[in-house]
Specification:
This protein has about 240 residues and is an alpha/beta fold. About 40% of the residues lie in helices and about 25% in strands.
Length: about 240
């Protein structure tokens, strides 16, 4: 079963084509990585798939929901970690996580909040205003809010960039187990070693176009590292 279906998805900003007729599908239980250089269109695609940005043209469904017709419904059921961590400045970390949980009508909310504060090791920050949290702690909070309701699919944009190595390992192990349990993760990143460690399938985007889509195992069969494959592919695309 496909949990993401994208057909000719396009986004144009003031005459600039940011995403150019992109088509792909993601199956349930996949760890899909969308890779590309800065400005390639990765974040724009996530924003369209999560109902935050209306496409210029094209079609997209997430969990069978039309993202253009029902953007709010999409955001209700998925998990989202944005590229920039932006929890409300006027709430404490605990208040924000409780707020998210109440909106999502989560049972045993207090227990789940406690678990995330302990798991990501920021219990001592739970009563600190979000505006006073460090970037790394804000990222922990955004990770917790994305997964607290155990969504069928989570869209995560550069989720590890501000985390220390110990928490990075915890988060990576959590994501691997989350996918093993039948959930789906859609990861956007330009950090290739993270994608190589986590993803089962990758798409590579450059200048708004998908230039590769396939299992990571196919690259490994060539006895090639993702980094060298990526650089060769991008070099060829730039010279085309």
């Amino acid at each position: 079963m496909y949990v993401v279906e994208v057909e000719n998805l396009t986004k144009i900003f003031n005459g600039l084509v940011a995403v150019d007729s992109v088509s792909f599908k993601v199956s349930r239980g996949e760890f899909f990585g969308l890779l590309g250089p800065n400005g390639a269109g990765k974040t724009t695609i996530i924003r369209m798939l999560t109902g935050q940005l209306k496409p210029t043209r094209g079609k997209a469904k997430v969990l069978g929901i039309n993202v253009v017709r029902n953007p709010i419904k999409v955001r209700e059921v998925v998990g989202i970690i944005p590229e920039q961590e932006v929890p409300p400045s006027f709430l404490t970390a605990e208040e924000y996580l409780e707020f998210v949980g109440k909106i999502r009508k989560i049972e045993n909310l207090e227990e789940r909040c406690d678990w995330w504060f302990k798991f990501l090791e920021f219990e001592d920050q739970r009563n600190v205003l979000c505006k006073d949290l460090s970037r790394g702690t804000r990222q922990k909070l955004m990770f917790a809010q994305a997964f607290i309701h155990e969504p069928e699919i989570a869209f995560i944009d550069e989720p590890l960039i501000n985390l220390d190595p110990i928490i990075q390992r915890k988060v990576k192990d959590f994501l691997k187990n989350y996918v093993r349990s039948g959930h789906t993760v859609f990861l956007c990143t330009h950090v290739l070693n993270i994608a190589e460690e986590l993803c089962s399938r990758i798409g590579i985007i450059d200048r708004g176009k998908i230039i590769y889509d396939g299992p990571l195992s196919e690259i490994r069969k060539r006895d090639e590292r993702l980094e060298s494959f990526f650089i060769k592919l991008l070099g060829g695309a730039m010279n085309a």
